[in-house]
Amino acid sequence: MAEVLSQSEIDALLAALSSGEMDANELKKEDSEKKVKVYDFKRALRFSKDQIRGLTRIHENYARLLTTYFSAQLRTFVQITVASVDQLPYEEFIRSIPKMTILNIFEAPPLEGRMVMEVNPNIAYAMLDRLLGGQGAIPEKMGALTEIENTVMERVFSKALDSFHEAWKQIIDIDPYLEVLEMNPQFMQIVSPNEIVAVISLSTKIGDTTGMINICLPHVVLEPIMPKLSGQYWFSTQRRSRDEREEIVLQEKIKTAKLPIVAELGTATINVGEFLSLSKGDVIQLDQVIDSKLSIKVGERIKFRGQPGTAKGRIAVQIDEVLEKEEETYE
Predict the structure, then answer these.
(1) Which residues contact 43 (CB under 8 A, 6 or more apart)?
(2) Comparing C-alpha atoms, which of 299, 315, 52, 23 is closest to residue 198?
(3) What is the CATH number of domain 258-271+284-322?
(4) Nearest 5°: phi and psi at 323?
């Protein structure tokens, strides 16, 4: 993308051209020269900008869900936001995290492969202190977790993965589970060193303690669903969801629509002259015998057959037969 100059930079450039400090011919010469950009094949970009934006949207939602979850668990002020979404070699990610940290290695079927949620020690120990009844203080010396502390942390971050499922459900229905909690990055080799990974950095504040939670998603794990991370798929999914909701609302409204139901004892046809000569006591013969079933119409369509009778002193009709769709007739 070409660099965009600010208004002050444009004014300074015009002033330099007017005063003779810069030569327009030299500028044209520079533009005509071939520009070379250094490209590192070890850092080949595997995620497009659109896919990075898709990951950002997903994890902004995840950050909100984690804020709610940790606030309830720790009973203190928690704020989590997406700080950055980058792609880099896995080896570079390992070098960038502390030598002693909390590494939650997890899987998310049906995706194949392992992913990592790295929690900065400051944040992890502040959480642990709150969970064990403290004020969220950080110990002066951070050592290995005891068995009890390890169990507590595993339980907390296993539940945090439920929110990971919720954040991803519009893209894919995953079932994440914590495989192991590790502290030494050197013992965590989930992909080859040169494999490109997406690293989502979540800026986290718990009380007065700040730190980062980094989620490492290898490209090889996300590759089957990469097309779904595009903005086009995202908005088409939202459109489908909106259409489905509108369809459900329409169905519910149709269910409350009122239709007339008529049970016919029979019909007869007379001419106008006969109609005008009718008097009290005359009998009109219907086209239906007394033992035959009545036709019950819903709107203009015959839907049921039944028998006449009474119920609690009121005239009623008992439905004996529901007609199949091909048997239904209009009258």
Answers:
(1) 88, 89, 196
(2) 52
(3) 2.30.330.10
(4) -75, 140
- Sequence spans of domains, the chain: 49-238, 258-271+284-322
User: Half-sphere exposure of 45 toward its Cβ, with a 13 Å CA cutoff?
Assistant: 8
Top CATH class of 49-238 equals alpha beta
**CA torsion, ordered 82, 86, 92, 98, to nearest 10 deg:** -10
* Residue located via tokens 């700080």: 83
pLDDT for 167-225, tens place per residue? 998 888 999 999 989 888 877 888 888 889 999 999 999 888 888 999 999 999 998 88
The DSSP code for 280 is T
Task: Give, as one character, the DSSP assignment of residue 264.
Answer: E
Select from 36, 173, 188 the least CA-distant residue to 109: 173
CB 115 within 8 A of CB 90: no
pLDDT in tens, 119-128: 988 888 888 8
3-state SS assignment for residue 139 = coil
Cis peptide before 109 (omega within 30 of 0): no
Decide: helix, strand or coil at residue 90.
helix
- Distance separating alpha carbons of residues 95 and 185, to the nearest angstrom: 9
Could you give the C-alpha distances from 66 to 53, 73, 160, 184, in angstroms and in order?
A: 20, 10, 7, 24
Q: pTM to 2 decimals?
A: 0.59
